[in-house]
């Protein structure tokens, strides 16, 4: 490699818009649940690219799918359809309540499509007054202006001028507040069936049930944002299946492509009728390359043994985190389901989630945070027991170094 081509972390500050603050290390290679940086240092990956790399790095089935499709056709636009998109759509509808699929490139785009669908349906069916969208505080639905406004964290949506209107934020898990507020003006409720960015907050079964019943009562639609919880992450193919509450619209992305950008909005045939030709679109959405890779991912993740394996791995994580906690008394609780887990810091450790992340990095472990007080784990769904053990040993060393 010539010197001019040498890429270092400092180049980021020169050429990138400063909306990220990436770690100093630059990863160059990944295999399974391990990653190597420019210096050849090895890391165990408990972050999975924020719940994306559900089969780890460079899974052979994904590599094969990409290689095969790359020799056939990459892009067509939606003037035509293509085989991988049709096969993937059929697989997704076979795995859940939905009859119809709209493909996009990301979770935000899948959510944008979902929000436009519910507004259009309400306008067509009930008239122009029915426009209110209810979402929840600390919720996260993406970074487009519509989705970030529906998300319940004002810090992400303030400061960009007038926001899309008629969006209400209520506390998550508060049935009373929801019952009191909701009316026939409400066109939809949008919620995560397990809040991710907001701190790995699960809904109570009563709350999930109440949301569904209130939607039915007020002729409102229920959107489940399963961008982070979907595609096997919680041990069900979609998290709603473990809650026993079925939405009308579901968004999925992140793990769907296992690292290749793809998102999808899933819904019923009745609702899909309202997205007529010309009402929405996406240049790259449903491209053959992305759909071929996602198809390989879905084939592996939907296997009963993969889904059962997620719950086995969850148990190993919980057990390991309990052992660390018995020594260092750092966590108040471990929340979440499957391999979407959040270790909430106790009072003595408040505000130090990022310290844990940085210390873990020094020990060769990649983890995430969800807010200031939660260390988040979203590893590969097929991570080996040895890699879990080794990663937890590294986490323990990181916490020991902070406890000193």
UniProtKB/TrEMBL annotation:
Keywords: Amino-acid biosynthesis, Aminotransferase, Arginine biosynthesis, Cytoplasm, Pyridoxal phosphate, Transferase. Pyridoxal 5'-phosphate binds at residues 107-108, 140, 225-228, 283. Pathway: Amino-acid biosynthesis; L-arginine biosynthesis; N(2)-acetyl-L-ornithine from L-glutamate: step 4/4. It is found in: Cytoplasm. Belongs to the class-III pyridoxal-phosphate-dependent aminotransferase family. ArgD subfamily. May also have succinyldiaminopimelate aminotransferase activity, thus carrying out the corresponding step in lysine biosynthesis. Homodimer. This is Acetylornithine aminotransferase. It comes from Vibrio caribbeanicus ATCC BAA-2122. The lineage of its organism: Bacteria, Pseudomonadati, Pseudomonadota, Gammaproteobacteria, Vibrionales.
